[in-house]
Every structure is written in C-alpha cells, then in structure tokens.
Amino acid sequence: MLAGCTHAPAVELAERLNALTGGALGHAFYGSDGASAVEIALKMSYHYWRNKGVAGKKEFVCLRGGYHGETLGALSVTDVALFRHVYDPLLLHPHLVMSPDSRAARDTETSEDVASRALREVHALFEARHLDIAAIIIEPLVQCAAGMAMHDAAYLRGLRALCDRFDVHLIADEIAVGCGRTGTFFAFEQATLPDAPAIWPDFLCLSKGITGGYLPLSIVLSRNAIFDAFLDDDISRGFLHSHSYTGNALACRAALAVLDRFEETNVLRKNQLVGLTLTKALAELAADHRIESFRQRGMIWAFDVRDEFAGPRFAERFHMQGRQHGLLIRPIGRTVYLLPPYVLNSELAHWLAERTLETVNDTLSQLDDHRHAAGSAVTLP
Ligand SMILES: Cc1ncc(COP(=O)(O)O)c(C=O)c1O
C-alpha cells in the first residue's frame, strides 16, 4: 500500500487520467476493485462535508436498479434485491430515486422526457433534504446490472445542475461504463454539449477496463477542491483509507499500458467503425418480432426478448445454448447483452451476430417445444 509514499507509475497514471479530464479531476485515490472504489467515494464525500463543517450531510441517494458492488457500503447504494435482501439489516438506507431508463417512456415521451421526469424526482428530494444529503451515485448512460438500462445524456447535465444548486456531490460510477465502453473514454464526457464548457462529476470511479482486465485496480478521481479539504496537519481531517494493494505498482503500470494502447491505436475510433459493422450485422435480430427495445451505446448492445416468448429460466437456457455456439453470453432476465472485447474486428462482428441470432432461434424454439409439451401434458387425461 502507498501509506504516505508514492511511486512513478502511480503518479504518471494520476497525471494522465487528470489530462484526460482536461484537468477537472486532478487527484486519484487507488483501490483494488470496484466495490472498494465505491466505498472510497462514499466515505470521502461524507468526510469532505464534515471537514467543511457540515457533518449533517451524511445521507446518500441512488437510482432504482443501480448496482455498485457488494461490500456493505457499496451494497447499501445497490438496488438489486438478489444481492441485498439477506444483508439488508446491516446496510445504510439511502434515498432511492427513479431510474431514467429510456424504456420507461410513456405514450409519446422521448428518452429526454423520461430524463426530465427522473430529474424532477431528484429535484423534489434535494429541495426537501439537501442539508442531509452528501452525494448521489449513478452509473452514467448505462445501468448495467439493471439490464443494460440506457438513458439520455440530458440526465447527466440536469443532475450536474441540481448537484451544483443544492451542494450535493455527484459520484459517477464508471466501473463498468468507463474506459471507452460507451464510445468515449469516460461515459460522463457525453454530458457536455458541443461548444459548451465541459462538465464533470465530483468523483469518478474506474476499474475493470483500466487494466484491460489483466490486474486488479480501481481508481477514484476527484476534484482538486475535494483533495484540498483533506490537506491538513490534523490527522482526523485526513482520509484514512487503505487496502493491501492500494496503488499497486504493477497494476498501475498495466493501466498505463492500456492508456498507451488507446493512444497508439486510436481504440475509440476503431471501436466506432467495428461497432457500425456489428450494429448492421444485428439488423435482422433488431427487426425480429420476438425482440423489443434493441439498443446500443458505444460497445454495448442489448435487446429484450418479449415476455410472451422468453418463458421460464430464459437466461439460463440462453446461456447454455450460447456455449454450444461458442458464445459466452449471460442474459439478465430476458435482456440479452453483448459487451465484446475491443479486439473485435469486422470478421468477428459478423460471426458474433450470426451466432447470437442462432442462439436466440434455438433457445426460443426449445422454449416453444417446452410450452407445447407442457400444454399437451395438461390436456392429456
Ligand atoms: C457499475 C459497477 N459498480 C461497481 C461494481 C463492483 O465492482 P467489483 O466487482 O470489482 O467490486 C461493478 C461490478 O460489476 C459494477 O458494474
């Protein structure tokens, strides 16, 4: 662990990430996995307000269906019953607000309208309780564990404005959606309108893709003003938080190699091109009457199999069928999603689309057979 020391890869990594935020997020705190990054952001937000003399700000806000990890703090701001229910008596109870999931659009509503509706709920909550609220935590653009629930970037802009107005920290959990996954290096970049000043969260959590999956590392980037609130000779004002592998040198070096690769081979541009190929190759599936809400954001594709076709144990059946086709796909409920690695090329994109369609066909015809068999079993005496 760093324990007050540092080393070249940790410094270089912090500096390069800072540069990628245009200097907005000038400090990096290291952890070893996603959940520890979320713990760090939550603790640091509360401690910041305490150092500023507003210790009353100790509540958190999170989104319905959000997922932020499974340690106690991270699980507290996670709204997935499967992971939460046993430990609920041990957890903090944050405020839950509506997800801006575009699929929640009613009648003629656009995804921007859904974002506005979700923001009105946050507004009402902040108006009533902002003196008690330290931070709101979100997964920008795509709530992954909620079933690749995608939302309009207007939500991020609106939330930034509300957080500024009511003095609430905005924590962007980019553990899954960072490092190019949504098409920009940071998902939050898409909140900024062309020709407008860049907007950023107060904390940004990264993990997973930052080392290309080779070594465990997580990072919490934060604003200089947050760092400054901890810089004091009084130890109780310091941020005392460490893990055995905080700032592990080899992991930081792996992250630097990933950043090199992004620069040298223009990964974002290459992904954009191969992404178009995959979207085109998936067109037949997108138009299939058994499928709804086909959606894409950067290198994430998802669609829902209509309820009437999905049937019992759909996710498990699809997963097993996929393996027979050489695919490793793990649906969430009736949502099938693709998060291909960035080695994807045009040939693999076609292969992936074909195999996915075959897997859908095989799984749904198996379910159909199952339904018919169940139907005849009922009619037989
Ligand atoms: C958005 C998000 N936050 C936090 C986590 C937790 O990360 P870890 O599993 O490394 O603790 C994950 C993991 O899937 C995630 O997707």
How does this model look, in words?
By secondary structure, the chain is an alpha/beta fold. The chain folds into two domains: 8-265, Aspartate Aminotransferase, domain 2 (3-Layer(aba) Sandwich); 267-373, Alpha-Beta Complex (Aspartate Aminotransferase, domain 1). The protein contains 13 helices and twelve strands. The strands form three sheets. It has a seven-stranded mixed beta sheet, sandwiched between helices. Strand 5 (142-143) and strand 6 (149-150) form a beta hairpin. Helix 1 (8-20) packs parallel to helix 8, helix 5 packs parallel to helix 6 and helix 12 (314-324) crosses helix 13 (346-379). The longest helix has 34 residues, at 346-379. The protein is globular, with a radius of gyration of 22 Å. Residues 33-35, 38, 67-69, 139, 144, 173, 175-176, 207 line the site of pyridoxal-5'-phosphate.
Domain count: the total is 2
Radius of gyration: 22 Å
User: What is the residue-averaged pLDDT?
Assistant: 96
Q: Give the DSSP E fraction (strand runs of 2 or more residues).
A: 5-15%
Poorly predicted parts: none
User: What's the β-strand tally?
Assistant: 12
The percent range for helix content is 40-55%
What is the helix/strand order? HEHEHHEHEEEHEEEHHHHEEHHEH
- Terminal CA distance: 70 Å
Bound molecules: pyridoxal-5'-phosphate
Biggest β-sheet: strands ordered side by side in the sheet: 1-9-8-7-4-2-3
Q: Which of globular, elongated, flat, extended, rod-shaped describes the shape?
A: globular
- Major sheet: 7 strands, mixed
SS content category? alpha/beta
Helix count equals 13
The CATH homology group name of the largest domain: Type I PLP-dependent aspartate aminotransferase-like (Major domain)
CATH architecture of the largest domain: 3-Layer(aba) Sandwich
CATH topology of the largest domain: Aspartate Aminotransferase, domain 2
CATH hierarchy, class of the largest domain: Alpha Beta
InterPro entries: Aminotrans_3 (IPR005814), PyrdxlP-dep_Trfase (IPR015424), PyrdxlP-dep_Trfase_major (IPR015421), PyrdxlP-dep_Trfase_small (IPR015422)
Protein name: Adenosylmethionine-8-amino-7-oxononanoate aminotransferase
Keywords: Aminotransferase, Pyridoxal phosphate, Transferase
Organism: Paraburkholderia aspalathi
